[in-house]
Amino acid sequence: MNRATVRAKEKARQAIYRQGWSEGYRYGGCVAVMEQIPVPAPPKEDIRILYVQQGFESVDQGMIGALRALAGVLEVASPEEMLQKAEQMNPNLVLVMNALHVFPAEHSEHIDLLRSRGIRTAVWFVDDPYYTDRSLPLAGHYDYVFTHELSCVPFYREAGCSEVHYLPLAADPERFAPVEPPRSYQSDVCFIGSGFWNRVALFDELAPYLARKKVRIIGGLWSRLQQQELLRSHIREGWVEPGEARIYYNGAKIVINMHRPTESGQDNANTANLPGLSINPRTYEIAACGALQITDVREDLQRYYRPGYDIETYGSAEELKQKIEYYLTHEQERIEMAWRSLRTTRERHTYHDRAARMLAIVK
Description:
The protein has 363 residues and is of the alpha/beta class. The protein is built from 14 helices and twelve strands. Strand 1, helix 2 and strand 2 (71-77) form a beta-alpha-beta unit.
């Protein structure tokens, strides 16, 4: 074996060692952060809740786990089971998650029937403002309307809803948490989400740069890209379950977050053209995995995270490229910011906190 071959093998061995050390260092720090955060154990409320799930696993299961810890009695129903289960348990509150997409056409009539029996009802719209054409006709049928979107609070109030409350989204720490990912899930840069037109424009602009990195782009609609030749090998088309998304987030040095467009006609039903002011669930979920996130900016971001401290932001493709390059070459800063993001999320932004806020209002 000649010297060049020996040197090459030694260099490769050292690179593998450094990578393994870095992965263990990141994960060990995440574990240390989580061990420092106390687990809340508040007394249960004397309330019987029927929770009607939408089918969003990461939101539904986060809320179900939180409500089991907080409510005296909790039952879970599908949209089709709602009336039957309400009759069986006689709840104090029927809480409906989102009320869209998979709910029967007569859902609003069912809610009216429950209210006529003296049962309080609440809905939490978590697709706002993208489907407000469909949520607005439903909102007036509930006693309480919760929305994660700031711009929709006056929108529902102006439509005649008297009890409208802003309730931000969160992360489910059981489903989004630090793990040690297999090598097959590791990347320099990762993005998970559908190829909405604003996202496609961003990745088309970044394509020459990203094509030279180890990049994962995961989701549907990415056939819209003009730079298919440069990015095709980096794209995995289709949906990934939350459990697998968690592994991808943990395996990425940097995770990009970009909110979807709100303008009417941009893959949505928002003819009122309500703006998007509030951050998406992905913001919390990425942070809960102990991953460094670089996100576009929404108005209420600074209510929950501190840009430059526990999250990073960008305002253009060029700024995003510069920050990706910076954090790929400043590993310690990257890891420490991700640890701070994890701490912020687990201390303040779990569904336990959101469920407790909701119950304080409805009781």
